[in-house]
Amino acid sequence: MDKIIITVVGKDTVGIIAKVCTYLSENNINILDISQTIVSGYFNMMMIADMNGTGLKFGQICDDLDAIGEKIGVSIKCQKEEIFDSMHRI
Q: Over the chain, what is the mean pLDDT?
């Protein structure tokens, strides 16, 4: 399985989850786990997704999500699972 970690942070607004999930669905990227919170008007979401079903390269997915984030006023970052795990192992 080719897993990626997607994080979304920013001021809460209508449609953040819908925009991100629509992009993933349209590109056959399966959401395996999702957690989201809103604290004092700030939105925070972390997703684990499987990109085995997509024809897109990891870099393209990151660029697309970054563009979606800019459009809706949030920061969207993605990392490959193995990099994320290595960074947080220490």
A: 92
